[in-house]
Specification:
The protein has 406 residues and is an alpha+beta fold. It folds into three domains: 5-71 and 92-174 and 273-339, FAD/NAD(P)-binding domain; 179-270, D-Amino Acid Oxidase, Chain A, domain 2; 351-405, no CATH class. Helix content is 34%, strand content 26%. Helix 1 packs parallel to helix 4 (103-116), helix 8 (301-320) packs antiparallel against helix 9 (327-349) and helix 10 crosses helix 13 (389-405). The model has no long low-confidence stretch (mean pLDDT 97). The structure holds flavin-adenine dinucleotide. Residues 9-15, 32-35, 41-46, 126-127, 157-159, 161, 163, 181, 183, 226, 269, 272, 288-290, 293, 296, 299, 301-303, 305 line the site of flavin-adenine dinucleotide. Flavin-adenine dinucleotide (FAD) binds next to helix 1, strand 2, strand 8, strand 13 and helix 8.
């Protein structure tokens, strides 16, 4: 088979997954990454479904060796009560755990694997111009110099950069959800004074505002607030002071974190949801966040990123082999997975899903089926909560309402 050269914009999980799959099949990958690793990036709570991809592509051993904190499930907290999903009790036959990862370390490990496989990662390289036909040409700026690189295909996995849609003039819808977020890391030095110190938790502060705490095995913890922008007021001053003040809203966790050192100026994400109107074209495709990003509440971003890159590169490998490559199927596949999460996000913020979790109506079967969605298995059509997510959620919500009548 003829060796092809693929240019990949962005070396996050989407770009590195795509690169690894192409390199494993004997093709060339040139990755252009704006930042220099290691770099802080949000997206630290993984989902079990992405573990399959790490295993399949050869990332698993070095990732395991990093001893990341194990995430065996997910805990939501409301009205002072916990509601736990355990990934070992789920409908789909999948992974029972995943990890909580500082992305600086996680992405670096993935990047090292890609380099070992022969991938050419150019750090500090910001893509500024592209041509997709008749041949792919990409111009990037690195250390004040412009360089052109040519290839057979272009994968845009630039996350919020949305490079290809912007440069080709395709519309990128921003802020479909009116949500913002702010996050930082703290030195979690008092964690052992508290029960289950490494347990990841989502504290629901209001129906449309929640707080995350994602403890890492390195002794630090990621803390963040996400929700409707109306909950983020008077943010002009010092972001660290703002964050410390905001911590008071989490009754459950304030004591643990109030005196912790804040490790970097909190990062803001204003109107983070985004969706590109066109997902592929001649000689190019979008993967990961760049195609669509909904909301972090179910930690679906990295899993959708690796799933999209697996599917896109499978399609591309067919194209390279001279077989029929159905890019509409790629698009439909992504719309399916994202569509399932969209229902859950919609009904999270209208409160229905929270009513279901805390309404005492979930029997074991329903709970396991929903757990598989939360684990990222959103293509398992045997699961009724995947096949018809709206119907599943609304029916269960009716049960909650009925139970409140009696
Ligand atoms: C507040 C918030 C919390 C989140 N929490 C979670 C979570 O807990 N779990 C989860 O799974 N997901 C979470 N996410 C989503 C997660 O961050 C992303 O889904 C994930 O990082 C997507 O990976 P990616 O490879 O598509 O993009 P990214 O990881 O963003 O990588 C894109 C890369 O492209 C590079 N780039 C951009 N522009 C250019 C350019 N012009 N030239 C060259 N390179 C460029 C960037 O530097 C970056 O490294 C969260 C998102 C937000 C906003």
């Amino acid at each position: 088979m003829e060796k092809k050269k693929v240019i990949i914009i962005g070396a996050g999980p989407a770009g590195l997954t795509a690169a690894a799959n192409l390199l494993n099949h004997g093709h060339e990958a040139v990755l252009l990454e704006r930042t220099v690793f290691p770099r802080v990036v949000v997206g630290e709570s993984l989902l079990p479904s992405s573990m399959e991809h790490y295993e399949l592509l050869g990332f698993m051993e070095p990732l395991k060796a990093a001893n990341f904190a194990v995430k065996p499930g997910v805990r939501f907290i409301k009205y002072g009560r916990n509601y736990d999903f355990s990934f070992s009790e789920q409908f789909t036959d999948g992974w029972h755990y995943t990890w909580q990862v500082p992305r600086a370390d996680f992405d670096q490990i993935m990047a090292d694997v890609v380099t070992e496989k022969g991938g050419d990662i150019r750090f500090g390289a910001t893509v500024t111009a592209i041509q997709t036909e008749p041949q792919v040409k990409v111009v990037y700026e690195q250390n004040g110099q412009l360089t052109e690189v040519t290839g057979d295909f272009l994968i845009d996995s630039s996350g919020f950069g949305c490079v290809v849609p912007q440069l080709l003039g395709h519309e990128v819808l921003k802020g479909q959800y009116p949500n913002w977020a702010v996050f930082t890391h703290v030195k979690d030095e008092f964690r052992h004074n508290f029960p289950e110190p490494e347990r990841i938790s989502f504290d629901i502060l209001e129906t449309d505002l929640w707080f995350w705490m994602i403890p890492f095995s390195n002794g630090n913890t990621s803390l963040g607030f996400a929700g409707n922008k109306r909950h983020f007021e008077n943010i002009e001053g010092d972001a660290t002071e703002y964050f410390r003040e905001k911590l008071k809203q989490s009754e459950r966790f304030y004591d643990r974190f109030k005196d912790c050192e804040i490790l970097f100026q909190p990062h803001w994400y204003k109107g983070y949801s985004q969706s590109s109107s066109v997902m592929y074209g001649k000689n190019w495709v979008l993967c990961g966040n760049c195609a669509e990003f909904l909301d972090p509440v179910f930690s679906s971003g990295v899993a959708l990123a690796t799933s999209s890159s697996m599917k896109a590169t499978e399609t591309l490998l067919k194209q390279f082999a001279g077989e029929e490559a159905d890019w509409e199927e790629y698009k439909a596949y992504m719309e399916q997975g994202i569509g399932v999460f969209r229902s859950y996000v919609d009904h999270w913020y209208d409160g229905k899903l929270q009513d279901i979790f805390f309404g005492g109506v979930l029997n074991t079967t329903f709970k396991e089926q929903i757990c598989s969605v939360l684990a990222g298995y959103v293509w398992d059509h045997n699961n009724p909560f995947v096949r018809r997510p709206e119907k599943g959620i609304l029916s269960l919500h009716k049960v909650v309402e009925l139970s409140q009548l009696t």
